[in-house]
Specification:
InterPro entries: DUF8207. The chain is an alpha+beta fold and 321 residues long. Among the domains are: 77-120; 125-241, no CATH class; 282-316, no CATH class. Helices cover 55% and strands 8% of the residues. The protein is built from ten helices and seven strands. The radius of gyration is 43 Å and the shape is elongated.
Length: 321
């Protein structure tokens, strides 16, 4: 054997010994870890094993067999010994029992199917309510997100009041109303279908608006009207609150007082005074805000209050957050 081969053989032997020592160390380390875990959790494992053993010893062995399987059937040899009449009688009794059992099972299955169908098939009214509530959950484009029902903390609200529907009643705050297609259209839809809406429902909707203040800013009794360029506001809400330009009831409209224009500067129409008309177009407000911010950047700090007011107005109307 050459010197080179001897050197290679020697290296192989050294490598084998090193691998063997490493394997033994790993094995001993694993054994040591298992032993330490066993000793650590021994106070917990032993009582549990004893409880399992006691439960298995105490629990009786239960053989569950069907009633039909427990019935003993005679062998063919025994049947041959008996009379032919007994054989026929036995067969008739078995046939009657099987027919009665199958009939009972069929009736029970039919009843279960009918009960299941009644439980899972939604009523027409419930389906209609579900369709409207899904508008809120899915935030559909058909939903009136300004004057309609909203979802907060897994509860439905309309303005400052909670709303729920039970049977043929709609509960809003402490009041209850008769549920109808037209009322649900007014409460949920951004563009209600006018063919469903009657004068009676309009009066009910006006009462709901007064009680919830959903059409007023901050849902406050004295809040300004939340105006919006929409068909619902123009055709339904605004006509209901024509008095005082739709801002306050007639008895709350201020005609005189400190800070108002003199009487000769107030325009008259048909012998009556006009209320002040404030900007409500978001484009005009944004243009005005841009101008005021530019003036403040130029060093004019006299418009901070107006900037704050316009910002709050846009935030309340949902144009900024």
């Amino acid at each position: 054997m050459s010197e080179r081969e001897q050197r290679i053989l020697h290296e192989l032997i050294k490598s084998r010994e090193a691998i063997r020592r490493k394997a033994l160390m790993l094995k001993r380390g694993r054994d040591e870890t298992e032993r330490m875990v066993t000793e650590t959790f021994k106070p917990i494992i032993n009582p549990i094993n004893k409880l399992v053993t006691l439960n298995e010893e105490k629990s009786p062995h239960v053989n569950k067999k069907k009633k039909l399987e427990q019935q003993t059937v005679k062998t063919d040899q025994n049947l041959k010994v008996e009379d032919s009449e007994n054989v026929q009688t036995l067969k008739l009794e078995n046939i009657k029992e099987e027919s009665s059992i199958s009939k009972e099972n069929t009736d029970q299955v039919t009843e279960d199917e009918e009960e299941g169908a009644a439980a899972w098939t939604p009523k027409v009214e419930d389906k209609m309510i579900t369709d409207y509530l899904n508008l809120v959950k899915m935030q559909s484009n058909e939903l009136d997100k300004l004057y309609g029902v909203r979802l907060e903390n897994d509860k439905y609200h309309l303005g400052k009041s909670s709303i729920s529907i039970d049977g043929d009643k709609v509960y809003i705050g402490n009041e209850q109303y008769i549920k109808s297609k037209s009322l649900l259209e007014l409460l949920f839809k951004k563009n209600p279908d006018l063919k469903y809406i009657t004068n009676t429902e309009m009066r009910v909707y006006e009462k709901i608006l007064d009680s919830t203040n959903v059409h007023r800013k901050r849902f406050a009794d004295d809040g300004d009207l939340r105006k919006c360029n929409s068909n619902k506001f123009d055709n339904i809400i605004e006509p209901l609150f024509k008095t005082g330009s739709g801002i306050l009831p007639r008895y709350k409209v201020v005609k005189r007082g400190y800070g108002l224009l003199p009487r000769y500067k107030v325009a008259k129409s048909h012998g009556s005074l006009k209320d002040f008309v404030y900007w409500n177009d978001p484009n005009e407000l944004v243009d005005r805000l841009r101008l005021l911010v530019a003036e403040r950047s130029a060093g004019n700090n006299a418009h901070d209050n107006e900037i704050t007011s316009i910002t709050e107005e846009l935030r309340e109307d949902g144009y900024i957050y």
